[in-house]
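Form P-L/3: holo structure prediction, ligand magnesium ion.
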Amino acid sequence: MSAVATLRRSRRGGQPASRRLRPWYENRSLVAGLIIVGIMVLLAVLAPLISPDNPLHQNLDQALQGPSGSHWLGTDKLGRDVLSRLLYGARVDLKIGFLAVLIPFVVGSVLGAIAGYYGGWVDIIIMRVVDVFYAFPLYLLVIALVFVMGSGERSIYLAIALVSWVSYCKIVRGEVIVARRQEYVQAARLGGLKNLRVLARHVGPNVVSQAITYAMSDIIMDIMVIVTLGYLGLGITPPTAEWGSMISDAQEFITTLWWMAVLPGVAVVITGLGLSLIGDGLGDLMSPERRR
Amino acid sequence: MRIVQAVPVAFGVTVVVFLLVHLIPGNPAESILGAQATPARVAALSKQMGLDESLPQQYLHFLDNIAHGNLGQSYTYQTSVLSLVLQRVPVTLLLVLYSVVLMLIISVPLSAWAASRPGGARDHAVRVVPLVGLGMPQFWVGVMLLLVFAVGFKWFPVGGYGQTFSQHLWYLFLPALTLAISVSPVIIRSLRSSMLNVLESDYVATARSKGAGGWSLFSGHVLRNAVIPAVSIVGVNVGYLVGGTLVIEQVFAIPGLGSLLIGSIQARDFPSVQAVALFVAVFVVAVGVLTDIVYTLLDPRVDLTRRGDV
Amino acid sequence: MPTDTPSTPVLSVQHLSLGIRRSEGHWDPLVRDVSFEVPAGVRYGLVGESGSGKSMTLKAIAGLLPRGVEVMEGQAWLGGEDLLSMPAARRRQIMGPRLSMIFQEPMTALNPTMRVGAQIAEGPRRHLGLSKKAAMDLAVQMIARTGIPDPVRRARAFPHELSGGLRQRVMIAMALSCQPTLVLCDEPTTALDVTVQDQVLRLLATLCEDMGSALVFVTHDLAVISQTCSRLSVMYGGQIMEEGSVRDVYRAPLHPYTEALFESAPDFDDPARMLKPIPGLPPSLTHPLPGCAFAPRCRHAVEACTTSAKQLAPVAGGRLSACDRVHEIFEVNA
Amino acid sequence: SGGASGGTSGTNADVGTPVQGGNLVVARAQDAKSMNNILTFDNTSIFTFEQMLQPLFTVTPDGKGTTPLLAKGYTISADKMTYTIQLKPGIKFSTGTEMTSADVKFSIDQDTKYASTGWGYINSSIKQVSAPSKYVVVVTLKHPWAPLIADLALFSNAVVPNNYGGKTMDAFYQAPVGTGPFKWGEWKRGQYLKLLANPNYWQKGYPHLQSVTFNVVPDSNTRKLQVQGGQADVDEYPDWSTFQSVGSPTVSATAFPSTELDYVAFNEAKKPFQDIHVRRAISAMIDRQAIVKAVLFNHGTAANSLLMPGVPFYQKSTPGIMKDAALAKSELAQSSVPNGFSTTLLIPSGDASKMTTAQIIQSDLKPYNINVTIKQLDPTANHNAQQNMQYEMGLSAWTMDIPDPDEWTSFAVDPAGGAKSAYTNYSSPTAIKLNREAEQTVDPTKRAALYNQLQDVTAHDAPLAYLYYAPFAYGVSKKVHRFEVTPLGNYPLADVWKSK
Amino acid sequence: MSINSGVNEALRVEDVTKQYGSRRNILRALDGVSLELQRGEILGLVGESGSGKSTLAKIIAGGTRQTSGRVLSDGSEIGIRRNAGEHRRIQMVFQDPYSSLNPRLTVRSTLAEVLRVHKIVPRDQIDKEVSRLMGLVGLDDSALDAYPGQFSGGQRQRIAIARALAVRPEVLVADEPVSALDVSVQATILDLFRSLRTELGLSVLFIAHNLAVVQHLVDRIAVMYLGRIVEVAPVQALFADPQHPYTKALIASVPRMRPVDLERAPAIEGEPPSPIHLPEGCRFNPRCAHAQSSCLDTDPALQPAGAPDHLAACLFAGALQPRSIAATKESA
Ligand SMILES: Nc1ncnc2c1ncn2[C@@H]1O[C@H](COP(=O)(O)OP(=O)(O)OP(=O)(O)O)[C@@H](O)[C@H]1O
Ligand SMILES: Nc1ncnc2c1ncn2[C@@H]1O[C@H](COP(=O)(O)OP(=O)(O)OP(=O)(O)O)[C@@H](O)[C@H]1O
Ligand SMILES: [Mg+2]
Ligand SMILES: [Mg+2]
Ligand code: NI
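OUTPUT (holo model):
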C-alpha cells in the first residue's frame, strides 16, 4: 500500500545535487583486476617470444626436476619445461575461458531478457526450461555430455554452453524485471519506442553488468570444469599445454612433487582473482546507484 | 506455488535424463555390451531396452517404468539400479548436509566479522582470500587436507565411510570440509553483503535507539534478517555441492551417488547413470522447494501463495 | 510538566560539526558549527531543504551516524552528559529511557521479522527491568494509547501486516515506551498521506505533552513545523541560518533564506500568492564557499557576503540569525 | 623368474611364526563386478573370487607351470586324447559338504556351456567330461591339446558344488561357495567386499587371516595415503610415478614379475598399416627406454618379443625391433608413405601411463613427419573401437591368465581366434601354422622350437610394436607377510599373515 | 455523465476499471472511472495513496491495459495496442526524476532518440530541435552532453519534461512531478507547466498529493478514493464548498502555515480499507462521520451537486453540514 508512497518521497534529495561520476580508473578493484588479467593476456600473447622452451619439447633425461637455473619452474614427467607450458597454457585456457563463456553469455542473456521483459507465457516456459537444467549440477551434466559426445575441445565447449546459459538467463531475467519497473524504461515505452529498441538500448546496457560480473567468475568455473574433466580423464587432448591438464597430470605427484600441481593452480587462482576483481569493479562502476 | 512449478520441472528432468542416453551416437545396446557384443545379444538387448520402438514411445515406457519404481538393471552389478541408488543416497545426502553445516560454520562468523568493518583490512581479507579457494580444484584441496590432517596429524581416516553413524561423521569430516571450502567464497560474499544491508538498515538503527547493542543486537535483529537471503543462496548452491560430490567421493573413496555415477559412466552402465542423474535432479528440485518453505517460515512477509510476482 | 527551569535545557548542542574524513586532517564537512538548545517539554523544529544536514545532526545526537561520517567537534549535552563523547555502554543505557528516536520510514524502521509488540517491549525490558510478561503488557498499553483499535491482536502482528499510519503509531509507541525526556523525530510523517499525517502529528504532540517529553522534529515542510513546534531552526548548507519561535519566524523571517523558503512554499490558505522559486543550486557541501552559504542564491547578497564566514548571532527578542545584513534587510522589531 | 626386473621381488616374507587372525585390508581402485567365475572378465573380480573358488590345478609360483591343487595327479592316454584326473579325497566346500567328481564335472561342463559369452572357449578342445568314480574325473578331447592342464588351472574351471547346490546360477553367485581358504562374507557394492576365513578349508592350519576386506578407493593418492596411514594393508596398483614414494618405514613398494606386455597395435585394415615397412619403421622410431623410464620409472624392461619373460617358451634373443634411426629411415623410404602421413593413436581415457606413452610416441614419430593425434575414448568405447577396427593405431596390453603361451598367441596371431589377431587384421600363414602346430604339440622341446619360430616371425612382421614388459606394482604394509603376486597377477592369500 | 460535449475535449476516459491479481484476490485499483480533459486545461487529480491515481495515469498513457472501459483521444478510441502516433498524442512525466532518465544516455541522445524514432523533424534538424526543447524547459544547451547523474532533481525533471514534449503531444500526464523535489525548485516546475499550457495549449492531467500545490496550478480538481472519483469541480468551487465528506476531510487535514488547535480531533478517523475487500455500499462509509444506514447499501454515483460542473459521489452531497474551510481561515 504505502510502499508506493514510501518510494515516492524517500528519494527526495537522496543524492547530492550534482554527483561527480567517478572515472573508471579511480576504481581500485577494476584497475587491479585489469592489471592482473592484462599481464596474463600479455604473457599469453607473448608466450612464443618469452617462453624459454618449446612447451611440447620432451627431454626424458630431465624429467621431473625441481626448479633450477635452466628450468625456472622445473620440468614435468616428460621433461618438458613447466614455465613454458604455463605460458602457453595461458593461451589455451584464456581462449577456452572466454569462448566457453561467450555463447552461454549471449544465449542466456538474450533469453533472460526476453523472459523478463515480456513476462507471461514466454517467461513461464523459458523459466521452466531453466529450472530443468538448473536441477542438474553443472559437473554432472558436463561430465555426462562430454562422455556422450566424446572428449575434446569441441565437446567441452558444447557441453558447457548447453549447461551454463541458464545462469545468465536467470541473472539477466531478474535484472530486467527490476529494470522494467524503472521509470526510464516505462518512459521509453510510453515514448512509443519499439520493444526491441527499448530492450536493446534502455534495458540491456543497464542490466548487463550483473551478467558480466558473473561471467568473470564463470570463466574460472569453466577452467575448473576443464581441470576436473582432466582429473576424470576427459580433458583437453594432449600434448597441448593447458593448466587443467597440467594439474590433472600432476595429480599423481601431489604427495611428492606438489609444486607441479600448485603452479598451474596458482595461475588459475591469479587469473581468477583478476577476473573477479574486474567483476567487482565493473559491478561498482556500471551500477552507480548500487553503493557497496 | 513452487510445488506446482516443480511438476513440469520434474517432467523436464525425466526428458533430459532420457535423452542423455538416447542421444548417444550408435546403438546404445552395442556400446553397453562392449566386449561381449554378438549380433544376437545386441538384438536381444535392443529389444529388452525397447530400442525398436519410436523415441516418444520409448519415453513413455521410460516414464511408466519410473512410475513403477523400475529404473532398470545395472549392467555392471547385475542388480536392480534402484536398490543400488537407494544404498548410495543416504551417503551423499549425509555428505551434502554435513558440508552445508560446515559451510555455515565457516561462513557465518567470517562474513559477520567482515561486515562489522566494511572497507577495512579484515573485510578485504575475507573477500579476497576465499577467491583463492575458488581457483583450487576440489580434488587438489581434498588430497592436501588428507595429507595434512589424515596422514600428518592422523586426526582423520584417509578416506572411506565407516560403519556406524559416529564413524560416518568422523570419516566424512574432511570431504565435507573440502566441499564447504569450495562453496564458502560464494556464500561468504553474499552473506556479507546481506549482513551489510541489514546492518545499514533503518530497523537496526531503531534497535540501537532502543539501547540494543553487541550480541543482543546481532542475535535479535541482525542474524535472522541476514539469514533469510542466505537461505536461498544456500539453496541455489546445493546443486553445486551435489556436483562437487562427484569428484570428492572419488578422492575420499566414499560410496555415494557420485562415485556410482563416475563408475557407471566409465563402464557405460547407462541405467545407473540415468538413475543417478534422475535422483540428483529430483533432489535438487526438492531442495529448491524446501528452501522456499524455509524461507517462508523465516520471513513472515512472504506468503507462499504469492511468490514469483514480487 | 517539565521540572527543569528554562535555563537548563534538556538538550544543548554546542558547535557541532560533522564531516567525512578523506585523509588525515582533511574533512568534507556536512554540518558546520551547529548550536541550539531545546528547553524541557518543548517541541523544537529543524527545517531546511534536502541535504541541509538535518538528519545528520539528529543522527549525531542519537549516536547513529552512518559509517564514514564522524563528529569533528562539538558537544551535545543531555542532562549534564555529553552524548557525543559518551562511551557506547553508557549510551546504550540512555537510549530508550532518556532519549529515543522515530524514523522517517515506518516500513523499514521496524524489524520485519519481529512482532510489533515484542519490538515495543524490547526497550522496557532492557531499561525498566520488566519481566517479559510485564513488558508485553506495557507494549499493549502503549499501542492502545496511540489509538490503535484492538491492541492485543495488533501487538501480535508483523510490521508488514499494518498500514503505514499504524506502523508509524507503533514507532511512536516504541519511542515513548520508556518515557524519554527527549524524542528525536526525522520526518516522521513524510511517507504518510495527509489525512494520516494529520492524525499522527496530533497523536505525537499529545503523547509528548502527556509524558513531558521534549521533541526535536526534523522536516522539510514548513507547514508541518507550524502545526507541531513552538521553536525552530532553519538549516541551509549544513549550518543554522535562523533560530527563533515559530510564531516570530513565520510572521517575519530574519534571514534571506528563510524568507525565500517561505516565498517558494505554497500556502494553502493563500492560493493567490505567486510562488517564487529560489534561483540557483543548493550548495556543495564538499566544496564550501568561504562566505555565507546562501550568498550565491541570495537576492540581497553583496560582495562582503561571499568572503567572510557568518555566525549565528542574536538579533532581538531571543531570535538569532546568521545574516550579517539582517538589520539592513529586515525591519527588526524587538 | 623372467625378465621383469627393477623393484624388489617378493615381500618381507618369511620372518617369524605366522600370527593367526586379523583382517587384511586391500585398497583397490575399482570394485569387483561379479563373482561369476565363468562370465566375468575383469581382474578385480577374478582376484577376489579366486580366494574362494579353486580349480583342479594351479599355477606354480614362477607362473610358468602348473601343479595339482584339488587334483592329486593325472595320467594321459597314449593318443594324448584322454586325461584321467584323480582328486584329493576329503576336500570340503566351505559349507562342509565334501567335493566329489560330480562337482568337478558340473563345473567344467558349466564353463564349457557358456563358451560364447564367457571363458568357456578355453575348453573348446574338450569333447566330454565324465565322473566314473567319486574321486576320478576323465576328460576326453577332440584332438590332442597341449595346454589342457593349464586350461583346467583357469579360474573359470574352478570347482563349485554340483548343480549350484540347488540354486540358480544368479542366486549362487550372490554368495558363491567353493573349496578355497576364504568364504563369502558380505559385499557393499562400491564400498567394500569382505571374505571370511573358511573353517572347513582342506589345508589344515590355513588360512592365517580371519578375514580379508577389499575396499574401493578410486584415487591413487588416497590409496597410497591409506597404506601409509595404516588404514589399509595393501595398495593395489599404485601409480608408477609415485611408486617409490609409496615405500616408507611402514610400507614396502613391491614390483612383482608379471606377464604384462604393453604394445602398439596397428590396424592393417587401414592404410598405410597394411604396409609392413610402415609398421617396421614406426617400431624402429619408438624409444622404448624412454617409455620405460617415463612410465615405469625404470621398473620394467623394453619388450622384444610377442611373449613375455614370465611365460613359458619366452625367447630372450628374439630380434624384436628396438629404436633404430637408420632402420626407421630405410624402412620408411621403402614404404608407401616415404614422406610421412597423419594418423591417430587411440587410448582409453583416464589412464595416465598410456597417456604418457602416447605423448612420447607422438613426439618420437614427429621428426619423421608422421603426425599423430592422440584420441581418447572412455575405456568401454575404446574397447569397442578396437573390436570394430575403428582405429588406426592403438595402445593395449595383455596379461596371461593361464601359464601357457597359447592363450595369448592364438589371440594375437590367429585371425580365426575371434579377435582378428589382437584386432590388427594381421594374417600371416606362417604364423598361423606355427601357432596351430604348437597348440597340438605336447613335447616341450618341440613346442619351444615352434614358439621360437613364431616369436621370430612376428618380430619381423611387426603387427604389434612391442613396448615394454611391466611388473605388477603393489604397496604392502610391512606388517603383512608372505604376500605374493604370481606373474598372472593373482595373489593367493591362504598363507598370508599379519603381525600385530 | 459529462457536461461538456466532445468538441473541446482533448481526452476522455469512460468507465475504466482496472483489476490486479487473480481469482481469489481481486484488487480493484480502478472501479469505473470516467473523466474528461479539456483542451488547454490542467486537471488536478488528488487522493489517498493507493486510490488508483498512478494506475489511471498509466492507462491513459498506454503503460498498462485497463480491464474494461475506453480511453478516447480527440473523440476517437485509442486501442489497447497503440501505434507510434497514438503514443505521441499522450505523453507521461514521472514522479521520480532520479529513475525516470536512463543513466547511461546523455541528455542529447535521450532527446534525439525520440525525435528520430518518431521522425518529428528531418534528421539534419535534430540538433536544432533538441536545443529548442531545452529552451522550452528552461535549460541551457551546455547541458546536452552531460549524463543525468550530473543534474539536480529539478533539472532532471525538466529533462524528463523535455523528452515528453519532444514528440509534440496534445496531452501530458504528470504523475506527481513535484513530489520528489524540494520546495525551492518545486515552484519552477509548476511555473513550467503553467507556461507550457499557455504557450503550447497543452492539456495536462496533473497528479499530486499536496493540495496546496494543486490549488496553485490547476483549473479543475478530481478527488479519488479507493479506485473511484468521488468529486470533480473547478478548483475554487471545490475548496470553497467541498461536497463529499472525504474531500472535506482531506482539506481539513492539510497542514497550514498558521498554528492550529492540536487538541481538536483529527478530521478523519481510521485508515483506508483494503482495496481487495471493499466495503458494501459507499466505499467511504466506514470512515465517514455522516454515514447513514442508506450509505451501507447504496454505492453512490457521481452526480451534479450544487453547480452543473460540480460533481460528487455522495448520497448527501449538498445536504451536509458545511464544515467550511472558511471557518478555519478566519480563525487563523
Ligand atoms: N552515509 C553518508 N555518507 C556520506 N555522506 C552522507 C551520507 N548520508 C548523507 N550524506 C550527505 O550528508 C549531507 C546531509 O545529509 P542529511 O541526510 O543530513 O540531509 P537532510 O537535511 O536530512 O536531507 P533530507 O531532507 O533529504 O533528509 C547530504 O549532502 C548527504 O549527501
Ligand atoms: N502492478 C501492480 N500489481 C498489483 N497491484 C498494483 C499494481 N500497481 C498498483 N497496484 C495497486 O493498485 C492500487 C492503486 O495503486 P496506484 O499506484 O494507482 O495508487 P496511487 O493513487 O498512485 O498511490 P500513490 O499516491 O501512493 O502513488 C494500490 O492498492 C496498489 O497497491
Ligand atoms: Mg533527512
Ligand atoms: Mg502513484
Ligand atoms: Ni586378461
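COMMENT: The pocket of magnesium ion (ligand 3) is lined by residues C 54-55, 186 (CB under 6 Å).
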